[in-house]
Design goal:
It is a single chain. The chain is low in regular secondary structure. It is about 0% helix and about 0% strand. The protein has no helices and no strands.
């Protein structure tokens, strides 16, 4: 997990893992070495990266997230 994150488990009775594999190889590249497949415009991997930009951690510091939403708790009444 990234620094500052953890998965807390309180007295589990069983553990189940469901792995997921994302194939990032460019199947049109017949030569040696890794060449990533098509990437979305939002991928931030450098042009000659040795990995696919699809596998970047969503917690990366290279992605800047901004939130312009405001939230408030209500003690009475109904939500609009």
């Amino acid at each position: 997990y990234p620094k500052g994150y953890a998965q807390l488990i309180w007295s589990p009775s069983h553990w189940s893992v469901t792995p997921m594999q994302v194939d990032t190889k460019n199947r049109e590249h017949k030569g040696k070495g890794f060449v990533p497949g098509p990437l979305p415009r939002s991928a931030l991997a450098p042009p000659n990266a040795s990995y696919s930009g699809l596998v970047e951690c969503p917690c990366t510091t290279r992605i800047k997230r901004e939130s312009h939403m405001a939230y408030a708790a209500r003690r009475e009444g109904a939500c609009p």
